[in-house]
Amino acid sequence: MKFSEQWLREWVSPQLGTQALADQITMAGLEVDAVAPVAATFAGVVVAEVLERTPHPDADKLSLCRVDDGSGEPVQVVCGAPNVAAGQRVPFARVGAVLPGDFKIKKAKLRGQESRGMICSASELGLEEETSPGILELPGSAPVGEDFRAWLGLDDHTIEVDLTPNRGDCLSLKGLAREVGVLNRLPVTGPEVVAVPATHDETFPVRVEDGERCPRYLGRLIKGVDVAAETPLWMVERLRRGGVRSIDPVVDVTNYVMLELGQPLHAFDRANLHGAVIVRLAREGERLVLLDGQEVSLDASTLVIADERGPLAIAGVMGGEHSGVSAETRDIFLESAFFTPLAVAGQARTYGLHTDASHRFERGVDPLLAREAAERATALLLEIVGGEAGPLVEVAHAEHLPAARRVTLRAARLEQALGKALPAAEVGEILERLGLVVEAGESGWEAAVPSWRFDLAIEEDLIEEVARIHGYNRLPVRRPQARLGLRPDHEARTPLGRLRRQMVARGYQEAVTYSFVAPELQKALLPEAVSPVLANPISSDLSVMRASLFPGLVRALQHNLNRQQSRVRLFETGLVFRGELDDLAQVPMLGALACGARDPEGWAAGRERVDFFDLKGDLESLLTMGGEADAWRFEPAQHPALHPGQSARLLHRGEEAGWIGTLHPAVRAELGLKVDAVLFEVRLDALTQGRVPAFTPLSRYPEVRRDLAFLVDEDLPVQALLDTLRGQAGEWLGECRLFDVYQGKGVPEGRKSVALGLTWQHPSRTLNDEEINELVDAIVNESRQHLGAELRG
């Protein structure tokens, strides 16, 4: 919300400077974003009258003008503006004047003709950012010879306030004046608004079919307006200082009243209305060309203003092009309505719009303001464009208007919240200055909330109001005291930071993706997943909560591949959501994805692409950090997002803890990915579990190693062989390492050779060959009986 300081001071003028006023507004909770002068610095410019205009003898596009600048003697000026004419009042820079940009006016000769001064355009005076095509024309009442800057009140500032959504009552000069008056204990005096008597009895029918969304609608027919009339300069200036561009007098008046009182208005061309004005929901298939030229297809949930032939405007957002005021307009139908915030909320964004009207209606407009605004706009219209006003027609559904609210404020609760006791008289005065009707009681105050304060509904709201008007800086500062014991450190847990650093050390970059994903993407990867659907999503592509980290990582992969990043290493930690809202599980997970070359490009790097076992090695580096690598198992299993022959379920102490595998070819084709990708995710609670390291003295006795090569079925998991081996190898087995897998010449078809290195070491003596041979025989026999394994030649 931008407003002119001078305009505000016409309503209420505290004895404060500009910056002090801005600081006071900020401290009251209405943050001031900027304070800026309304015009650039210039001097020596006066109001002048063009007495005579003749063509320049040596230049077709120049004119010779005699100008009366109030000095007593007319001066000659060469002017190139196409709209200069005799009889005009104009801003005139005398010789010696300094214009914005430190441009000094001197005597000059243009094409042989003397020029003493310059007739100025709005852009040359810094009143417009764009270059003006002609000079600035002033009203005929402008006093010749008076300082232009003082006459137009350009020693003024615009103050821009960043309002929170709950303070829609301050989206007007009237609302801001109320705040300043309350803060400074000053009366607020605005223009007197009186009912305009009807000079004709013609009305236009109004029918409200949706009283719940539009509880109050007022309309008035104004006949015989002159749209060609000029908007007064004072109104154009106030609109400009409020950030609104002047369009035509009718639209300017509606915008002016909106800035002044906070009530959006709209004017229809009576000639383009047929039958009746109808407030209803849009119908399927209806379309509307808006005032900005955009044609939209209306949704059935959109409230519209229509006539018997179809939609005329989106209620509370924007009018239609066909029914708007034009140069041919002679009669207008003025609309002033109260639309509920829920009726307008989100409608503008649905059609890619954001208008001043929707901004106000979404936050709440005073439901009692519509009549006052209609009367104020009517008076201004009659003054500027003339015409005859008809009766003001009102359709109201009282049962749907916001109910009057009464809120109780307890003195004890107020003292507890503020940390100090305020005098009862001061509290009552603050509430009354805010517009509440207050009844004091033994334990507190009962307050009736005014219609314009949508944000006051509970006791805490009144406490906040008392605190900010009393002054936050006047409240006591108390630091909380607490006796906090040290929280025990779970030494057995692996900190999340260590896991992250390990992934970074292995060449991964951390990704942070949304917790909500596209339903199509999640269905492609996890067709059986159940997770909450958002009621009001950011966009249709982010409308369901993720049931896995896979969708976000895959979307990040697509983003990188589309930007020519062929080697991608990403990991992410975050929550996944499984189940419906009434039985929702939020599970912290760590996931990773790899794609492209195994090694970064370089003279010593190979061209091999990353595969399942590369990612498995990265995952195992995390599993061993907790010191319980033997608590983890990989078992072949099928996952809908993973290749059926290259996927495994991850088990921790026998319970499912995650998945690892290559992206399924069908899923990859559906998503349009042309390269393979490997990915995993694992539960963080399992990954961070571990055990406290315990020291074991090093044995001083020699190790004994045996290498065993088994022939086993090619589909037998090596893990099964390792489990059997450890069960028979005894308590002194120190290490069991897989160092070779072979299929080919010398190995029967359907079999593979698995070579294992086993190392034993006793802590207190040397092991002999007989003991080791017994253990090896037990391993071989057990493997033969249960796994069909044979020692290879």
From TrEMBL:
One of its GO terms (cellular component) is phenylalanine-tRNA ligase complex. Pfam families: B3_4 (PF03483), B5 (PF03484), FDX-ACB (PF03147), tRNA_bind (PF01588), tRNA_synthFbeta (PF17759). It is found in: Cytoplasm. Residues 402-477 form the B5 domain. SMART domains: B3_4 (SM00873), B5 (SM00874), FDX-ACB (SM00896). PROSITE patterns: B5, FDX_ACB, TRBD. Binds 2 magnesium ions per tetramer. Its cofactor is Mg(2+). It catalyses: tRNA(Phe) + L-phenylalanine + ATP = L-phenylalanyl-tRNA(Phe) + AMP + diphosphate + H(+). Keywords: Aminoacyl-tRNA synthetase, ATP-binding, Cytoplasm, Ligase, Magnesium, Metal-binding, Nucleotide-binding, Protein biosynthesis, RNA-binding, tRNA-binding. Coiled coil: none annotated. Residues 39-149 form the TRNA-binding domain. Its main location: cytoplasm. Its EC number is 6.1.1.20. One of its GO terms (molecular function) is tRNA binding. Residues 699-792 form the FDX-ACB domain. Mg(2+) binds at D455, D461, E464, E465. Belongs to the phenylalanyl-tRNA synthetase beta subunit family. Type 1 subfamily. HAMAP family: Phe_tRNA_synth_beta1 (MF_00283). Tetramer of two alpha and two beta subunits. This is Phenylalanine--tRNA ligase beta subunit. The lineage of its organism: Bacteria, Pseudomonadati, Pseudomonadota, Gammaproteobacteria, Oceanospirillales. The gene is pheT.
